[in-house]
TrEMBL record:
<dbReference type="InterPro" id="IPR001466">
    <property type="entry name" value="Beta-lactam-related"/>
</dbReference>
<dbReference type="InterPro" id="IPR012338">
    <property type="entry name" value="Beta-lactam/transpept-like"/>
</dbReference>
<dbReference type="Pfam" id="PF00144">
    <property type="entry name" value="Beta-lactamase"/>
</dbReference>
<protein>
    <submittedName>
        <fullName>Beta-lactamase family protein</fullName>
    </submittedName>
</protein>
<feature type="domain" description="Beta-lactamase-related">
    <location>
        <begin position="17"/>
        <end position="330"/>
    </location>
</feature>
<dbReference type="InterPro" id="IPR050491">
    <property type="entry name" value="AmpC-like"/>
</dbReference>
Length: 452
């Protein structure tokens, strides 16, 4: 099937692929060389049976971070913020456990997930306009996992801090600034921040796999206090595609108005930190994941929250962008069946598979055994026979645990196999000590620090 054929057959491809996965409903939108293709399949809610339409609204999860980053860079352009300034310049109340290092954390660190903050704190501080201010006070005594700027570790808290800084500089709540500075100027008229706004649209709800099979997620909208990192914003696939095209058009809206300077857009897409062992992406920009494989280039972001998944990819060089939104636990399988063919047809992009793991007898596996921790989670790696086994648990798992295999590819790189995930996940072990033991285990985009 040729590139154009696959886009023209988007509806058939999405519909067939969705039926083979645990995804009640999905919507896709593709832009390629001046043409837009859209498709919708399934239902927004498996109990009501209401059909997904091309304008259905899905929560986009952490893709919100790319919008938050855009707001920050707009304020940098206006001279209201400085990327190299310490966070303490803008926040009077910012007291991490390592006080002497708190002042070393800059806005650039927050945008590129290199601050070192142990950053997956999730807390509901209410729906009032002071919710972000209250959240920042919960950070008193939070630890650093690593030195600021040392390496990459995904940090939701960093973007909540950025949201609060936006509020202080603009003198208005984050959601109001987002709407007035980005959503309205870009013409994103199928975007919502609150449950009551969702009532105006055909809005999807997330689904998870429960004890009795597929069921609704526990809640549809998460705390407003985590909004800048991606817990509340929802929009249609076409709206998210318009946001991607705004970045492809170097800061010019669909109506031809320049909203952000070209050099600012370029700075956001410039690699800030290389991640050579990720296996998923190659670097991180300012609010963007970056993928450079075999000469192909792709920029984007993923999001997942409460049974919802969002995938955004674009390549200005190929005049191509694609969005997939889904509301069930089989979203990754759907991504592989639908998005991967788009990326290949539209931009010649194909992510490489992880290398096969060699015979584990080639490694001293005992060096990797131990407990690795971060806020709310821990991973215990043990040697079972001739294999490494890992067990993920902790407060955020609500008493549950998840076991997975860790197969070393090299002394500092591993292939991790999780039940329910159709392909191995990359893991790596940075910071080997003089004793030949790793100081960290990096998996699911996050660093876990060794504590034994």
């Amino acid at each position: 099937m040729s590139g154009n054929d696959i886009f023209y057959n988007l509806q058939e491809l999405l519909g067939t692929a969705r039926q083979a996965t645990d995804v009640p409903g999905a919507v896709a939108a593709v832009y390629h060389k001046g043409e837009i293709y859209q498709a919708a399949a399934g239902v927004v809610n498996f109990r009501t049976g209401v059909a997904v339409t091309q304008d259905s609204v899905f929560q986009i999860g952490s893709v919100t971070k790319s919008l938050t980053a855009t707001l920050v860079m707009m304020l940098v352009e206006e001279g209201k913020l400085d990327l190299e300034a310490p966070v303490t310049k803008y926040l009077d109340h910012f007291n991490l456990a390592q006080k002497e290092k708190t002042a070393l954390i800059t806005l650039r660190h927050l945008l590129s997930h290199t601050s070192g903050i142990d950053g997956d704190l999730i807390a509901d501080t209410g729906r009032g306009e002071d919710c972000l201010e209250k959240f920042i006070r919960l950070l008193d005594g939070v630890n650093l996992l690593h030195e600021p700027g040392e390496f990459f570790s995904y940090c939701n808290v960093g973007y909540i801090i950025l949201g609060r800084i936006i509020e202080l500089v603009e003198g208005a709540p984050f959601d109001k600034v987002l709407k007035e500075r980005l959503l309205v100027p870009l013409g994103l008229d199928h975007a919502v921040m609150f449950a009551e706004e969702a009532l105006f649209f055909n809005t999807a709800i997330g689904h998870v796999m429960g004890p009795r099979g597929l069921d609704h997620a526990e809640t549809a909208f998460a705390p407003r206090s985590n909004a800048p990192s991606g817990t509340v914003l929802g929009m249609s696939a076409r709206d998210l595609l318009m946001f991607a095209r705004f970045h492809m058009n170097k800061g010019v809206t669909a109506k031809g108005k320049r909203l952000v300077q070209e050099k600012t857009i370029a700075e956001m897409q410039k690699p800030q930190v290389r991640i050579p062992l990720s296996g998923r992406y190659t670097s991180w920009g300012l609010g963007w994941m970056q993928y450079y494989w075999d000469g192909a280039d792709m920029t984007g972001h993923d999001g997942g929250w409460m049974g919802m998944s969002a995938y955004l990819r674009f390549s200005p060089r190929h005049d191509f962008a694609a969005v997939l939104l889904a509301n069930g636990p089989g979203a990754l399988q759907l991504y592989r069946a639908v998005m991967e063919p788009f990326l290949l047809a539209g931009a010649g992009f194909r992510a490489p598979a992880l290398p096969a793991a060699p015979d584990q007898k080639n490694f001293d596996l005992s060096r990797y055994c131990g407990r690795y921790v971060r806020h709310g989670q821990s991973i215990d790696i043990t040697l079972q026979g001739s294999r490494l086994k890992a067990c993920l648990g902790g407060e955020y798992m609500d008493g549950a645990t998840m076991e997975f295999d860790v197969n070393l590819i090299e002394h500092n790189r591993a292939s991790c196999s999780f039940d329910g995930i159709p392909m191995p996940v990359s893991g790596y072990f940075p910071g080997f000590s003089g004793k030949g033991r790793p100081a960290y285990f990096h998996v699911t985009e996050r660093a876990f620090r060794r504590r034994d």
